[in-house]
Amino acid sequence: MRVAVLADVHGNLPALEAVLDHVQTLDVDRIVLLGDIAGGPMPGQTLDRLAELADRVIWVHGNGERELVDAFDGAGPTGPAADTVASCIPLLERRHRDLMADLPLTVTVDVDGLGPTLFCHATPRRDDEFVLVDSPIERWKAVLHGVTEQVVVCGHTHMPFDRLVTGRRVINPGSVGMAYGPPGAYWALLGPTVQLQRTMYDVHAAAERIAASGFPNASGWAEEYVLRPHSDDDALHAFTTIAANDGPTPTPN
């Protein structure tokens, strides 16, 4: 089993299309989606494109899917992404809601060369928890407590890394649609090795498509996340503050 791992597309359909074209040139058995797929300027089209891949795709849910389903069902959006969630709802239909509903928090796939590999959006225990490449080991121990797989793949922070933590290998593929640092669409190819990938795409053409999407302030979104993305240093600083305020790390039983 050789898999492509795509996380945090965030409704950036042009970036997704570029990655799927890249994946098509490789010997890949399945595509694993790590959540936060639709929350962005082209949510419905993004979900429709992935639905076309049918059983070739393995899904897990992120906080984005949970929040979009709740809002579609009538709950008022809350939290940092409330405006984005509210902007997406008029662009989604019932089939999109049903595609996102009831997705698992984690899946395990036996990957060539890596063995049983656990995939999740943020952490194996929560879909909105922040752990970073340089998070304290005690926090990593708490996050991975009870996990039997020796390889864990997570997204959520949009920043790629590949490191050892408490005897396990932890991989983040980065973000397809809302990357920090150098422009491009980031993802990972697993089996039999780990290859962190960056697919280049025409960001100016992408920005034009996004601007015409009907998403509120779509031009501003494209300017901030496609044309002039935040630096990895700024993102790491912001996420370190969020992680520090995410509550005390529970002590494993």
UniProtKB/TrEMBL annotation:
One cellular component (GO) term of this entry: cytoplasm
Pfam family for this entry, one: Metallophos_2
Any one GO molecular function term: phosphatase activity
InterPro entries documented for this protein: Ap4A_hydrolase, Calcineurin-like_PHP_lpxH, Metallo-depent_PP-like, Pesterase_MJ0912
Cited SUPFAM superfamilies: Metallo-dependent phosphatases (SSF56300)
Domain of life of the native organism: Bacteria
Residue span(s) of domain Calcineurin-like phosphoesterase: 1-182
PANTHER family attached to this UniProt entry: BLL5683 PROTEIN, METALLOPHOSPHOESTERASE
Protein family: Belongs to the metallophosphoesterase superfamily. YfcE family.
Protein name per the record: Phosphoesterase
Origin species: Phytohabitans houttuyneae
